[in-house]
Amino acid sequence: MTLMRYSKPNRNALDKNFSDIMDEFFNDVVNDQRGNFVPSIDISETENQFLITAELPGMNKDDITISLENSRLAISGERSFENEEKGKTFHRVETKYGSFERSFQLPDNVDEESISATYENGLLNISIDKSEDKVKKQIQIS
């Protein structure tokens, strides 16, 4: 089965019904209450590695911190809003800003010494090698 994202048909502003107007209103309210920036994260696995990709557009690598404590990998940082341009008035800002922290418990079969990270074009890529020494074993019942 293939999942496809639903997108509303593009309508003329005068062609909106009450339901569409209410959807827009509540989406704006929910988005404003959510507040802080929460980056999207993808986690995948190959035969030899775990791979984590975080979308962090508009950030510098100096604004990002990666830490490891008790087999918990944490990614944190802050995305700042620069509103210093004179003569520019913002009528709507939908981009999220603020501090964030995402953390993930690593499985037992990783080599914590092998963790490496790169940041390019707004994507943080973290790779973690698997360790064959720590592979879970199945226990036979007698």
UniProtKB/TrEMBL annotation:
One Pfam family cited in the UniProt record for this chain: HSP20
SUPFAM superfamilies: HSP20-like chaperones
InterPro entries the record matches: A-crystallin/Hsp20_dom (IPR002068), CS_dom (IPR007052), HSP20-like_chaperone (IPR008978), Small_HSP (IPR031107)
CS domain location: 36-142
Stored CDD domains: ACD_sHsps-like
Domain SHSP, first and last residues per copy: 32-142
Family: Belongs to the small heat shock protein (HSP20) family.
PANTHER family assigned to the protein according to its UniProt record, in alphabetical order: HEAT-SHOCK PROTEIN 20 FAMILY MEMBER
Name of this chain's protein: Heat-shock protein Hsp20
Organism: Fodinibius salipaludis
